[in-house]
Amino acid sequence: MEDKLQEVELKTKKNTTFIKWSFRFFVGLIFLTILLYSRIEISPIFCLLIFVLGSVCFISGVINNEEKTYQFWISLIGYPLYLMVAITVSVFLFSR
Questions:
Q1: H or E element, residue 56
Q2: How far apart are alpha carbons 31 and 25 in whole angstroms?
Q3: Which residues contact 54 (CB under 8 A, 6 or more apart)?
Q4: Which of 18, 23, 35, 51 could connect to 71 by a Cys-Cys bridge, CB 3.0–4.6 Å?
Q5: First CA to last CA across the chain, in angstroms?
Q6: Nearest one of 27, 10, 15, 14 to 70, comparing CA atoms
Q7: Which of 66, 68, 87, 72 lies closest to 24, judged by CA?
């Protein structure tokens, strides 16, 4: 009886991948930011869109109680750190 309950729990468990997508967006965001600051023609609005999409995926993953893997921790630390660095660099560049 207990085995059947475990099988039912495994079948009903949702397998979402929001944290994985958040991590992928973060890696893409870092890549695009490097390209942006190396004077290649990329719109900063595109970087902002990737940032927002990644943040939304991360929040969705937290709400769905997804597994806390290295992707979770990198996204948890990376997005706020990226935001602080981006604001600091922007203020520094535009204050001249």
A1: helix 44-63
A2: 10
A3: 21, 22, 25, 26, 29, 75, 79
A4: 23
A5: 71
A6: 27
A7: 72
Q: What's the pLDDT tens digit per position in 13-59?
A: 567 799 999 999 999 999 998 888 787 777 888 999 999 999 999 99
pTM confidence score? 0.78
Question: DSSP states of 18-48 as a string?
Answer: HHHHHHHHHHHHHHHHHHHHTT----HHHHH
Domain ranges of the chain: 17-94
CA distances from residue 52 to 2, 14, 20, 74 in whole angstroms, order as listed? 43, 24, 15, 16
Higher pLDDT, 63 or 6: 63
Distance CA 85, CA 41 (A): 21
